[in-house]
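Researcher: Sequence recovery benchmark, item below. Answer with residues only.
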């Protein structure tokens, strides 16, 4: 057994698929299948329960996965420290980014970083902020963008956006002649929300419940432009961040401030306090702070 076997196994455990794991590792599916089979034979246990196309970890698989994460993390720390010591400025950054954030804030940062460090590969994983936070916590990602706040004892971070959510209404809605709208006035409306893996999904529902009603959710999506089009078609209302609202076609929807309460949307870049950051990752954070803002937490 070598560290590569454990890395391959963890990718299979993560995706629950040989095909997706092979794509992530840029190797062939037969190679990763053979590696897992050899690992099972060496350990004398079955690690994966294969039922048709579905794949789940066995009890032994869960034990190996938990221990393998610690081993791989220690190995990555060792190799990163040695790379820095030898002044090797190549590497890979695994960066988690919610889809609605990327186009608004990061093209310029990525462009400048590539100019300065052309040998560094940035792997961008687009997921909702909740999953990004989870993946930074467990070491699947090096750095991620999330909706603040996060746990101070687990993460270091800096904030680069502090906005509020705004209300999107269909053009002929009863509230379009208002200057502001209170959240309680939306109790009888149909809501179009982001999916459950987006922090805003839970935050909006929580604020509605605090205000005194359970929102009636009719659609969920991962795409802000689809959400705004659903509103334009009269299917419901939506609450989106100010930055996103600036991208929305205001000839198709009506956008108003939301009050009592206003719902904050604060974005930050996070990384684990207790995890070694490579030279490339540290330089990425420094450049992002310069370009996006220097607010610290």
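Model:
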């Amino acid at each position: 057994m070598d560290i590569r076997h454990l890395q391959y196994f963890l990718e299979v455990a993560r995706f629950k698929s040989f095909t997706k794991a092979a794509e992530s590792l840029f190797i062939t599916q037969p190679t990763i299948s053979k590696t897992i089979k050899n690992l099972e034979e060496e350990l004398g246990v079955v690690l994966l329960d294969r039922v048709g196309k579905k794949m789940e970890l066995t009890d032994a698989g869960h034990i190996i996965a938990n221990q393998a994460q610690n081993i791989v993390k220690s190995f990555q720390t060792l190799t990163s420290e040695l790379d820095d010591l030898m002044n090797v400025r190549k590497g890979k950054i695994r960066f988690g980014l919610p889809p609605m954030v990327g186009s608004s804030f990061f093209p310029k940062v990525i462009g400048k970083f590539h100019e300065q460090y052309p040998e560094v590969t940035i792997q961008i994983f687009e997921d909702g902020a909740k999953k990004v936070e989870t993946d930074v916590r467990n070491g699947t990602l090096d750095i991620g963008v999330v909706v603040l706040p996060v746990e101070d004892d687990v993460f270091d971070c800096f904030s680069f956006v502090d906005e509020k959510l705004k209300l999107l209404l269909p053009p002929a809605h009863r509230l379009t002649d208002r200057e502001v709208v209170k959240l309680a006035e939306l109790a009888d409306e149909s809501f179009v929300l982001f999916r459950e893996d987006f922090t805003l999904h839970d935050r909006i529902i929580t604020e509605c419940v605090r205000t005194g009603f359970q929102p009636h959710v009719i659609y969920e999506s991962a795409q802000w432009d689809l959400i705004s089009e659903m509103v334009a078609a009269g299917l419901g209302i939506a609450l989106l961040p100010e930055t996103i609202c600036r991208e929305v076609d205001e000839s198709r929807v009506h956008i108003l401030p939301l009050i009592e309460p206003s719902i904050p949307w604060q974005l930050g870049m996070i990384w684990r306090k207790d995890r070694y950051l490579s030279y490339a990752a540290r330089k990425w954070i420094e450049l992002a702070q310069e370009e996006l803002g220097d607010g610290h937490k």
